[in-house]
Specification:
about 220 residues, alpha/beta, TIM Barrel, three-stranded parallel β-sheet, 9 strands, about 40% helix
């Protein structure tokens, strides 16, 4: 939305242009750039639980169904005071499914960065979440992300099926080769067959169990 259109009488910011005011952009699709984050989370909490939680000693994550946090995109100013009580956030994990139209995958990567940029502008530490589908999205998944910082990925649901694991392994390699992160936060499993080489290379892997993993652990005790 142009500045001219934003100031037009009666104009509503249906594109949420306010989120990227003052942003710089990367790639021909103009993905907002995030500042590198060096802090590492001690504990994670899902957005849907953070809204009513009083335990603020955690970083808010969005590794849950999109329906649980679409409201953040729709009404970000409503949730900003809540999010600012926590140590930081991992930028939203809007879905990038391979069977989605490519333009929708690109839109969701943009939304990830737009919310992340806006939260940084409002003084919050933000670890960028890197979500990719197939090789069509690998490059864009790194757009706007500074090298040598802390990044986050979700491995939950990407390991059980051989086909899904292949896409995850290939995408993760591209991301790490491109961004050369200091540390990678992983929501889900970190099997040695996927992560051992990165640990050996000196990249810190910070693993956090998914809620499914936690529930299975409780059942088995």
């Amino acid at each position: 939305m142009s500045k001219e259109n934003c100031t037009r009488s009666g104009c509503k910011d249906v594109f949420h242009a306010f989120l990227v005011k003052n942003a710089t952009y990367d790639s021909p699709l103009e993905i907002p750039c995030l500042k590198a984050e060096m802090q590492k989370p001690n504990k994670l909490i899902a957005f849907s639980k953070a809204i009513s939680s009083k335990d603020y000693d955690a970083w808010v994550h969005f590794y849950e169904d999109d329906v649980a946090f679409e409201r953040l995109w729709n009404r970000p100013k409503t949730y900003l005071p809540i999010l600012k009580k926590f140590r930081g956030i991992i930028s939203p994990d809007f879905s990038v499914y391979r069977d989605m139209p490519l333009i929708m995958q690109q839109w969701n990567i943009y939304r990830n960065r737009a919310i992340g940029f806006w939260l940084q502008e409002n003084g919050m530490p933000v670890i960028p979440n890197i979500r990719f589908g197939d090789d069509r999205t690998y490059e864009l998944s790194c757009a706007g992300i500074a090298k040598h910082g802390v990044i986050s990925v979700g491995s939950h649901g990407c390991m059980r099926l051989l086909r899904e694991r292949k896409y995850f392994i290939n995408g993760l390699k591209y991301v790490i080769d491109t961004l050369e992160p200091k540390a990678v936060v992983v929501y889900g499993a970190t099997p040695d067959g996927v992560f051992a080489s990165y640990k050996k290379a000196g990249i810190e892997i910070l693993q956090f169990d998914s809620e499914f993993m936690q529930s299975r652990r409780v059942v088995n005790t």
